[in-house]
Specification:
The protein is of the alpha/beta class. It has four domains: about 220 residues, no CATH class; about 140 residues, FAD/NAD(P)-binding domain (3-Layer(bba) Sandwich); about 110 residues, FAD/NAD(P)-binding domain, CATH 3.50.50.60; about 110 residues, Enolase-like, domain 1 (2-Layer Sandwich). Helices cover about 50% and strands about 15% of the residues. Strands 1, 2, 3, 4, 5, 6 and 16 form a seven-stranded mixed β-sheet that branches. Strands 17-18-21-20-19 form a five-stranded antiparallel β-sheet, sandwiched between helices. The protein has a four-stranded parallel β-sheet with strand order 10-9-8-14, with helices on one face. A hairpin with a 2-residue loop joins strand 11 and strand 12. Helix 4 runs antiparallel to helix 5, helix 5 crosses helix 7 and helix 6 packs parallel to helix 8. The longest helix is centred in the N-terminal third of the chain and has 34 residues. Keywords: Disulfide bond, FAD, Flavoprotein, Membrane, NADP, Oxidoreductase, Redox-active center, Transmembrane, Transmembrane helix. InterPro entries: FAD/NAD-bd_sf, FAD/NAD-binding_dom, FAD/NAD-linked_Rdtase_dimer_sf, Pyr_nucl-diS_OxRdtase_dimer, Pyr_OxRdtase_I_AS, VTT_dom. Pfam families: Pyr_redox_2, Pyr_redox_dim, VTT_dom.
């Protein structure tokens, strides 16, 4: 450790020791200063100033009390002068100490997590700090130490702190001054107008400060724009996917004027290229597997013959069946003004579509996401497939190469293998968000069904040789593989669709992953422009988009009266492979990374009567709970119908229901849902009161005699 850091630690230790040994609490009492002030006013002010700087600089307790004492002893304006400079200097001292001791280590240790934070502080650090100083939700000593770890200059920290703390300083010192003016303690003296006003200011200060801060933010955001005198609509929604449709539906139900703009097809990705077609294809592939398994039930049906064109025809038929739910006709009948065209945001209150400008009080951006296409040499020379274009296939690929072993890659790889294609799946990790035990179950089934799975490999180049398409893959050890294929599916995730909407002109910020920066109310930098769904993140699920849409719409229409923070605490997800993986809350991996203590309770589906009858007795239910308690922190189900089974545990987490109540709930027999009850039973068994049961055993033995 550098000598400078050792010296600082020694100084801190000496100050804390002196505080404890010399009874530092005496300096937090007005009598100490009153006695000194009567004889030496200037010396008293100097002693008070130094003590205040030391207390705040070394994060010792009592700064708020010292502020009130300053008003009691020195009066309002002298007290404000002393406290303002002493608190700012002390805060800066704490800031510098934190920076010298910890910043390098913290930035190096957590660099991958702090990138976004550092960029935000570099750009708007002064405003963030001012906000924290103005509304002291977080103790000031914590702000001092944390800001020392961030890339904000010392001088900027000082002057912003002094300015931001000034209003609060005046309120607290004024309260002290009013208390100090009381000569005799009585009901009449306490209830003076000045003291009552001081207490009222103390109570109202956070709300007044928040309102002032909101006004400053709005003024900054809208600088340079002129708000229209009247609006055509209350709300304009850009994008008619899951988030946009729900937003428009809610707005119309609330009798607001709403325009829904979609440049392609109503229903967005979920209906046309995502959930609906993929689950239709998966169902067809499962039918093939069921026929192959029929012999296990004593039924011989021969080898199934797949007509791929008819399979894809049924996929399109299902899309057409669902289309009316998301159609222009339906939403028009609900009172939504549906517009087909490419939307561009001209100003915070203006959206241009088809050459026409729509003025609107609020805007919701729900433009969704599109497949992420990597920059790999030779890829642009190949007619590659994505999760959006694979539905155009009419003939089954002979050898399908799937890039990406996430949920989309695994689902489509398994489905195409079952339908008769030869499939090679390539990716660094299989289902990287899932725990290893869940991913291994899927891996075993994929390999058993014939999918060639190359984990740890990345494709670095595509080439064409003698009429054959070749992918060159390399693993972490430098080993190379050549994969000859006739079709390649790029399934490397999705990126937010934000282009050609005027967002750059409005300086609406993006996160490093391309999603729009929104606050806890789903607002962008403009308080009347919201974003929800895939374009906002952090989840790319249809149900997450619908969930966000409620918050975005209600906040947009009624935010001036009441705003709602979007709640992500219980967000389930399902990977529709066979077996399915359903997850809610913490995984074991997440709990370890976050340092959260947990217990694991498991129940194997190989012990479940209905699973055995269905010939689906593989998989498990895994529940993470707080140590010694039945409160659910997370759950994972692997097996048949896992996506349906997880709903009970999602509800339990949402409503705060523990495993004991699940165990006490009657589940129909024989059903797959009993797995949740038996998992709860395993938890109860592991937490049985053994000592009490031994006494009960003795009691029963005594009764037999």
């Amino acid at each position: 450790m550098p000598i400078k850091k050792i010296a600082i630690l020694i100084v801190i230790a000496l100050v804390v020791a002196a505080y404890l040994l010399l009874d530092g609490q005496q300096y937090l009492h007005p009598h100490f200063y009153q006695a000194l002030y009567a004889e030496q006013p200037r010396l008293t002010a100097a002693v008070y100033f130094v003590i205040y700087v030391v207390a705040t600089g070394f994060s010792l307790p009592g700064a708020a009390l010292l502020t009130v004492i300053g008003g009691m002893i020195f009066g309002l304006w002298t007290g404000v002068l002393l406290v303002s400079f002493a608190s700012s200097l002390g805060a800066t001292l704490a800031f510098v100490v934190s920076r010298l001791l910890l910043r390098d280590w913290v930035q190096a240790r957590f660099s991958r997590y702090l990138g976004v934070v550092n960029r935000g502080i570099e750009k708007d650090g002064a405003f963030y700090l001012f906000s924290l100083r103005l509304i002291p939700v977080i103790p000031f000593w914590v702000i001092n130490l944390v800001m020392g770890l961030m890339p904000i200059p010392v001088w900027r920290f000082y002057w912003v702190s002094q300015l931001g703390m000034l209003a609060g300083t005046i309120v607290y010192v004024n309260a002290g001054a009013e208390i100090g003016s009381i000569e005799e303690l009585s009901a009449a003296s306490i209830l003076t107008p000045g003291l009552l006003l001081s207490f009222l200011l103390l109570a109202m200060f956070p709300y007044v400060a928040r309102a002032l801060l909101d006004a400053i933010k709005r003024r900054r955001a809208y600088r340079g724009y002129t708000r229209p005198a009247n609006f055509d609509r209350n709300l304009a929604v850009i994008g008619a996917g899951s988030a946009g449709l729900v937003s428009a539906y809610i707005a119309s139900a609330l009798k607001s004027g709403v325009t829904l703009i979609e440049k392609q097809r109503m229903g967005g990705d979920c209906l046309n290229t995502g959930c609906v077609p993929s689950k239709s294809l998966i169902r067809a592939s499962r039918a093939v597997k069921e026929i192959q398994r029929a012999a296990a039930f004593g039924i011989d049906v021969g080898t199934p013959s797949v007509d791929f064109a008819r399979v894809m025809g049924r996929v399109k038929k299902v899309i057409r069946q669902v289309e009316p739910h998301d159609s222009i006709e339906r939403y028009s009948s609900l009172g939504v003004d549906c517009v087909q065209g490419d939307a561009s945001i001209c100003s915070p209150w203006e959206v241009m579509v088809n050459g026409q400008v729509i003025t609107t009080a609020n805007i919701i951006i729900a433009s969704g996401a599109s497949p992420r296409i990597p920059q790999i040499p030779g890829l642009d020379q190949i007619n590659y497939l994505t999760s959006e274009t694979i539905w155009e296939l009419e003939a089954l690929p002979q050898h399908l190469l799937v890039m990406g072993a996430g949920p989309i890659g695994c689902e489509l790889a398994q489905a195409m293998q079952r339908l008769g294609a030869r499939v090679t799946l390539v990716g660094p990790h299989l289902l990287p968000r899932e725990d290893e035990d869940a991913a291994q179950q899927v891996l075993a089934v994929l390999q058993d069904e014939g999918v060639e799975v190359l984990l740890g490999y990345r494709i670095g180049e595509f080439d064409t040789r003698g009429g054959e398409q070749v992918a060159l893959a390399t693993d972490s050890d430098g080993n190379r593989r050549e994969i000859v294929f006739d079709q390649v599916l790029v399934a490397l995730g999705r990126q937010a669709r934000t282009g050609n909407m005027g967002l750059e002109k409005l300086e609406i910020e993006r996160n490093p992953d391309g999603t729009l920066v929104v606050d806890e109310y789903l607002r962008t930098r403009f308080p009347n422009i919201y974003a929800c769904g895939d374009v906002a993140g952090p989840y790319q699920f249809t149900h997450a988009a619908a969930h966000q849409a409620w918050y975005a719409t209600v906040n947009a229409l009624f935010g001036r009266f009441k705003k709602f923070k979007v709640d992500y605490r219980v967000m389930p997800r399902v990977t529709f492979t066979d077996p399915e993986i359903a997850q809610v809350g913490l995984t074991e991996k997440m709990a370890r990374e976050q340092g959260i203590e947990y217990e694991v309770t498991r129940y194997g589906l190989d012990d479940l009567d209905r699973a055995m009858a269905e010939n689906s007795a593989s998989g498990f239910v895994k529940v993470l709970t707080m140590p010694g308690k039945d409160r659910i922190l997370g759950a994972c189900i692997v097996g048949a119908h896992a996506g349906e089974l997880i709903a009970e545990l999602v509800l339990a987490m949402k409503q705060g229901i523990g495993l004991k109540k699940i165990l006490g709930t009657i589940h129909s027999y024989p059903t797959m849902s009993e797995a949740n009850k038996f998992a709860a039973g395993n938890w109860q068994k592991a937490h049985s009161p053994e000592r009490l049961l031994r006494w009960v055993e003795k009691f029963h033995r005594w009764q037999r005699h």
